[in-house]
Write a structure and sequence with these properties.
The protein is of the alpha/beta class. It has ten helices and twelve strands. It has two domains: 2-116 and 286-329, Nucleotidyltransferase, domain 5 (2-Layer Sandwich); 128-281, Nucleotidyltransferase, domain 5 (2-Layer Sandwich). A five-stranded mixed sheet has the order 3-2-1-4-5, with helices on both faces. A five-stranded mixed sheet has the order 8-7-6-11-12, with helices on both faces. Strands 9-10 form a two-stranded antiparallel sheet. Strand 9 (196-198) and strand 10 (201-203) form a beta hairpin. The protein is globular. The structure holds adenosine monophosphate (AMP) and magnesium ion. The site of adenosine monophosphate (AMP) has 18 residues, from helix 4 and helix 5.
Length: 330
């Protein structure tokens, strides 16, 4: 079965095409086009205009890469939420149009669950705790009692958003995460920053304010980046480990754009090793927001009998991870 998925929850419009090959996900195409604001953060309507401008090109390119005609696609999936309303509506409109035009079934997919399912579909993990670290989201998710449940999350801003905001303050380009990672390699001094862990939740706004005042007082930018990574990632590692112990799972999976960070990977890997567990990271283009993860999740959902009628395909800006009845897993 071949599935085409459209991702459009925030800054990225992506179209992925995947095929199932003995329960595994084979990615045939994964075209990603990201909106970069000229200055400041994402403006939802401008991002949506960007998506509307490029969506047909991105679909065409994905079909070309996969060497498929549109009518060879069996199912159309789209990111139903959570995300920014105008962006979600743009992606959903394209998916509905394709579904109606090609007369193919439509499946609405929860974006956070897709980050986990693409890891299960393309790496060797079977039942992991997912540390989902992206621009807008920071969540610790695991499967329990028939649903994907959020065991911990940020109480204020997402980790990626935190890094981007700090970067903007220090005059770095957007996205700042990768630049901060590079600068951190040259850091030597561990600055004192607030470490906020509450149970399995984390918070970053206190650390942001504190890091900004270090910048104002002339601390080396390399030391600020180093300290921010060490302390923020330690908090993420701690809550992930607590969730693994709580739900009794011995696999950890990373997802989201910040999962590209080598230092975070290293810390999660060390934690996993020390408790006799294994850690997994999907390949880079499957970590960030992308259409292939939506296509794959739509495919396994459809195979379990789930379909979204066009007239019921409303977007859900606040789509909770545990709202979905996960029929495709026993
Ligand atoms: P996403 O929202 O999942 O598409 O991921 C985007 C976020 O990932 C942005 O906030 C980036 O700054 C962040 N990011 C990307 N690469 C890295 C990296 N190497 N280290 C830290 N953050 C990163
Ligand atoms: Mg994401």
């Amino acid at each position: 079965m071949i599935s085409l998925g459209i991702e459009g929850t925030a800054h990225t419009i992506g179209v992925g095409i995947v095929e199932d090959e003995s329960e595994r996900c084979k990615v045939l195409a994964n075209v990603i086009k990201t909106y970069h604001p000229e200055k400041g953060g994402i403006h939802p309507r401008e991002a949506a205009n960007h998506h509307a401008k490029y969506i047909s090109q991105v679909i065409k390119k994905a079909l070309e890469e996969a060497k498929l005609d549109p009518d060879e696609v069996d199912v159309i999936s789209f990111s139903q939420g959570p995300g920014l309303g105008p962006c979600l509506r743009t992606a959903a409109t394209a998916a509905r149009a394709l579904s109606l035009y090609l007369k193919k079934p439509l499946v609405g997919v929860n974006h956070c669950i897709a980050h986990l399912e693409i890891g299960r579909g393309t790496t060797d993990c079977k039942d992991p705790v997912l540390l989902y670290v992206s621009g807008g989201n920071t969540q610790v998710i695991a499967f329990a009692n028939g649903r994907y449940r959020v065991f911990g999350e940020t109480l204020d801003i997402g980790i990626g958003n935190f890094l981007d905001k700090l970067g903007r303050y220090m005059n770095l380009q957007f996205p700042s995460g990768p630049i901060i990672e590079n600068l951190a390699k040259k850091g030597e001094k561990l600055l004192d920053l607030p470490y906020t862990v509450k149970g399995m939740d984390v918070a970053f706004s206190g650390m942001l304010t504190s890091a900004q005042s270090y910048f104002d007082s002339g601390e080396r930018i390399e030391d600020i980046c180093f300290s921010v990574q060490e302390i923020a990632f330690a908090a993420l590692t701690e809550v992930t480990e607590r969730a693994m112990a709580h739900v009794g799972k011995d696999e950890v999976l990373l997802g989201g754009g910040v999962a590209r960070n080598k230092r975070l990977r290293e810390m999660i890997e060390t934690m996993a090793k020390e408790r006799g567990a294994r850690s997994f990271v999907p390949r880079d283009d499957l970590c960030i927001d992308n259409g292939a993860m939506i296509a794959w999740t739509g495919l396994i959902m459809y195979k379990s009998g789930i379909e979204t009628k066009v007239e019921e395909s409303y977007i859900e800006q606040r789509f909770r991870t545990d709202e979905v009845d996960v029929k495709w897993r026993e």
